[in-house]
Amino acid sequence: MKIKGIILVLIGAASFGLTPIFVKTGFRQGYSLGEINIIQMIFAFIVLLALSLFKQLSMRGLSRKDVWKVMGTGTSVGLTSVFYYGAMQFLPASLAIILLFQFVWIGMIYEWFFTKIKPTIINFLSLFVTLAGVVLASDIMSGGFFEFPPMGLLLGILSGFSYAAFVFFSGQVATKTHPILRSTLMVTGSLIIILIIFVQDLSTLPVLDGQLWTIGAGVALVGAIIPPLFFAGGAPLISGRLANVLSSVELPVAIVSAMLILSESVSFIQWIGVLLIIAAILINESGEKLTKKL
Question: Where would you find the membrane-spanning parts of this chain (predicted)?
Answer without folding.
Answer: 33-54, 66-87, 93-114, 121-142, 148-168, 180-199, 211-230, 242-262, 268-284
